[in-house]
Each structure stands twice: as C-alpha cells, then as structure tokens.
Amino acid sequence: MLTGAPNPTPDLAAVLRARLAGFAGFLRANGYAVAGSDAVGLLETVARTGTLDRHILRWSLKALLCGRGDEWRRFDALFDAYFLPPNKKLFVASNVTAARARDSAGAPRDATEREPAAGSGHGRDTDAGLARHGASRAARLASTDFRDLNRAEHVRDVEALMRRFARRLKHLRLRRDARYDHGRRLDLQGTIRRSVASGGTPLRLAWKDRRRVRPRLVLLLDVSRSMSRYSFFYLRLARALCGELADVHSFIFHTRITGVGEALSDPDPWRSQERLQLLAVGWGGGTRIGECFRDFNRSHGARLVHSRTGVIIVSDGYDTGEPEVLAKALATLRRRSRRIVWLNPLLNQPGFTPESRGMRAAMPHIDLLAPGADLAGVARVLPQIIEALG
Amino acid sequence: MTRPVDRMREIVDLQSQLQDAGYIAEPALVAALLLMLDLGRPLLLEGDAGVGKTEVAKAIAAVRGARLIRLQCYEGLDVHAAMYEWNYQRQLLAIKLLEHDDRPVAVKEQDIFSERYLLKRPLLEAISCAAQAVLLIDEIDRADEAFEAYLLELLSDFQMSIPELGTVRAVTRPLVVITSNGTRELSDALRRRCLYQYIDYPAFAKELAIVEVKAPHAAGQLARQVVQFVQSVRRMDLQKKPGVAETLDWTAALLRMGISVIDDDGAERILETLSALIKTRDDRAGFTREVVARIAAAC
Fold first, then answer.
1. Is A301 in Cβ contact with B2 (below 8 Å)?
2. What is the pTM of this model?
3. Fold adopted by A216-389
4. Bridging pattern class, strands B159-162 and B166-169
5. Residue-wise pLDDT tens digits, A282-292
C-alpha cells in the first residue's frame, strides 16, 4: 500500500516515517483525542507490525489511536482516506477546513462581535441602571425573562448566577447527608485499626458514614425554533451545572437528539457555543419530542438512566409527532428513572394552560411540571427538584 | 521492521491458541492483544454487556499460562479493597504476644508492620507476582473518578507506596485488561494510556463458531438455527439485547427441553425457554406466539 518495495531505501524510509507520523495529526484534525506523544507510539507500533500488510496496520493503529466508541466506528473510513490515495484529498480538505473554521471562530474574544444577533433590541433602557449597582443587577437578572437576556453583557452574570445555583444544589445534597449523621453505624475494622495506636484499647471509635446520595442528572433540552428564546440560556445552565457536578449528562433535541456533554465542557465558552451550533446545524423543522425520547431510550437509556437518575426535560411541549409515541417513550423513561421533571418556559405566561397535544400526552408520566422561564422561576423549582432526587 | 508475513503468522498463532482456550477472537482483537504484549500497555475493552469482554482476559491468561487476578469495580471502591490492608486482628494479637518480649520497641514495630501482616488486594497482588500475571479490572466505569486517577498512577509507574512499609515496585509488569460498559465517561488520560478495542455483538459466523465450541452437543442444524434466531432477536427493538452468554444459556435450555429443531410448529415450546434469552418484562411482552413463530420460520 505505502510502498511496494520490500527494502525501502533510507530516503524512502524517512518519507514513510513522516507519512505515518502525519496520520496522528490527521486524526487530530478529525477530532480524535490524539496527543503528540502518540506519534512516537505509532512509529513504535509500526516497527513491530511492518507496513506491508494493510490489515495488520489497520488493526494495530486502530487499537492504538482510538479512545472511544465513536472514534472506533469512524476509524476505518479515515484510515482509508489517509492511506488510499484517491479519496484522500477530499477528506482532508473537508475536515481540515471544518477544524480551521472552528479554531478561527473560537479565537476572537470580542463579545459583541461573537454574540448571536437575536433579541438585540430588547431592554435597552435597563442598561444604565444595571451598570450602576452590582447587587441590584443580580436581583434584577433573577426575575428577567430569559429572552431579555440574550445579550453579551449579561452572559457573565448569568453564568455566575447559574454557578451559584449549581453550588446550592451541591450544598443541599451535602446537608442532606449531614442530617443522617445520627443513624451511622460503628465501623469495626476502622475501630480496631485506630486502636493499634493505643495498644489495642479502642479509645477512639470509627464510624461508617451513610452512603453518599449522588443523584445523576440527565438534561434533555428542546432547541427547536419555538424554544429559541430560552434554549440558549438553558444550555448555559447545563454548562454551569456540568462544571459544578460530575454526574450531569446533557442532550439537545429538535428533530433528532444528540449528546452535548463534550461540547458543553469545552473550557472556552465561545468555542463551546460554536460547537453546539455545529451540532444542531442542518436539522429540519418541527419538533419530534416523542421520537427523540424514544431514540434516547434506545441508545442511551440503559447506559445512563438508573434508579437514582433525575431526568429534567426543558421543552414547551409543542410536538409535531404522534402523542402516543411521546407517551410511550416517557412511560419507559419514567420506569427507568427516579423522577422526571418537566420545565416549561411558557407555563407562567398569563392564560397559558398545558393543553398542547404533546403536553397532554406527557402529563401522566411526569412527576413535576414547573415553569422555568426566568432565573427566579428556576430558583423556585430547584428545591423541589432536589427534594425529588433525594 | 518485522516482516509482515511473520506478524500475520503471530496473529494466526495467537488466534488459534485463543480458540483452544475457548475464545473465538477476530483478527483485529488479536492484533490489539499482540500490541498489548509488545508495548506493555493496558487494553481497554468497551462494548455492551454480554459481548465477552471479561472472557478476553480469561482467555489471554489461559494462553499465557498466567494467573488471572480480577478486580471487580463498584461504587465506593477504595484503596483498602483494591490495593492493600493491614491485618489488624493479627497485628493486635502480635502486640499482646510481644508485650513480654525484650526486643527494642523499634524492632517490634518493624515486626508488626512487616509483610506478614499485610493483606494483599488485587492491585498489589498483581504487581508483586513473581510470574507475569493478567490483571483484569472489570467494569471500571462503576468506580468513581478518584479511583480512576489512582489507577492511572499505578498503571504509569507500576509501583505503589505503603507508608509503613515503603514503596513496592513491580516484580513483573502485569498484563492489564480493563473493561467498561460505558455507564460513565472515562477520563481522556486513562483512554490515552490504553490500547482500545470496541467489541460489538458477534456476527453470524463468529457466534456460530462460539456456540459450536461452547455447546458441542448443539452442533449442526440446531446451532445454526439458534444463532439465526438470536441474531434476529437482536435486530428487534429491545430494552436488553441478549448477549453471547444468553445465546449459550438458551442453547442449553433448548437441549434440556429436548428441542432439536427450531420451527414455527414448536413455537409453543420455544416460548417456554425464552426466559433464558429475554430478560425484561417489557421485552417479554413483545414475544407472542405469532412473533416467535415468524422468527422461527425464518430460521
């Protein structure tokens, strides 16, 4: 494949090595978590396997350079693209430009330039007041509808506020544990271990702590057009939560459902947002909530949802799919999980009742339906959510 | 560079050795195993439950004639359960016995904290084995992140420090096989350090080979039908897809019931054995007589 000659000349060998080492970079450009040191491992591997048999090289490099399931599945195509000449150009071109576009998009830090234009006309009059008092600014933010916040200067405040919420969630969890303190049991082994220091007399007793309650959170966020005014800020909430709690899994759905945990945990908030937009690009119109949940159950349910999992759905419930599908999918999800909480941003709008077909189908299967259009709304239901998960 | 022909021979050799040990491996997996032996890196296996991840470690241990040391991970796994613990009861006894001993205190203390009173848990056991062992770290996704970080340290240096005793260095480096069901995302650092292999449900030919090796009584027509049936079941929309272990269980169940052929006439009797294959109530509800008859007829 690389060369037909059984004994490559020194020059050829160098070319060969460079070519092989370049494969690591090629994979990195295609989103693989491959480090520079892997090029060394690659050459070492090749030294053992030889390069003349394509299959052996493929199998060995696959084991060496892949790190997770999706990389595993994409590897063969990339391998062919890199080592088999005809396809190569096309593949490199498309992927590298995508990566480069992403990089350059992440580079400028000018917030005004980077901010999506939506909602730019809202609340200009509040600017002056907000700039004056930090404290009252936070208070004001707490009761502002999310759609009024879709502007750059508020992003930091929102992030900070969300982070505080996440901390409160953690704090509440810990306090919950502390209250159980009186019910603890004696740890015999630990007591004996301690007594060694005092010559075998158990002076200091050791106690067994009650197992920590660690609820897992699964967030399912509707990013359809009808939700566009809110979804951005719920993504920020999800991002802040991911930063604070270890066991949070976020998904966005629209006509399809996709995991966004990795994009959300990108340390650069702007690039994180960029990646999210890339994920949702090219999705068709309409919201198929039922089908999305069914897909979620199929591909992630068994893996992610267990009896200590709280599922938080954020959606307005406008479903263009069949309500029966939604009801069935939610019933399945409900059986697996501990609680399902549905946040509907439209709920506190005057005159709104959850009468859409989707909402009606969902009602029997959810534990808590709460408004969540603004930060104060989320703050109000947060204790209930924590209570439900405890 | 090794001649590719030699490498291919190595792969074929190891593959047949694995088969002798009762494990049917695809060449890609064998290539990864060879690389694991060459580079001394851990091998991370991912895939659905029941595709035979754990069996890989058992098979490679059997082939190498090595001891298999298994660490089953669970939530709350700590150092004492994974690495070492002092045998406090014996230490206490020793303290009492040494009370009337005239040796200096320092010597006594050294005696109490000697290896005699050390309980070796799997990780310490694996690195202090005289002969190279196979260390199986099963379902690492069940342990928490803190343990993963600790493991990472062990896997990079192959040494561990015990405050009272000093640093224990690996006598031989164990072959490390790590399995994960993906209930939790593993850290990139761990993934980077490992070779990786994703194991899927076996295709028809491979599963047939497995059934023929593991259940020789079912060879021939029944084995083919069983595998065909299970493969169709896996294509259905199920909560819990049957793994290879389920296939073998079911084969045994069929043999026990005296069923030697799967056809739509015998759907009633097949239904009685399905509890070996279908493991949730919802999934079971989908298997009516008609459904079973239809699948059986296609076999």
1. no
2. 0.67
3. Rossmann fold (3.40.50)
4. antiparallel
5. 555 678 889 99
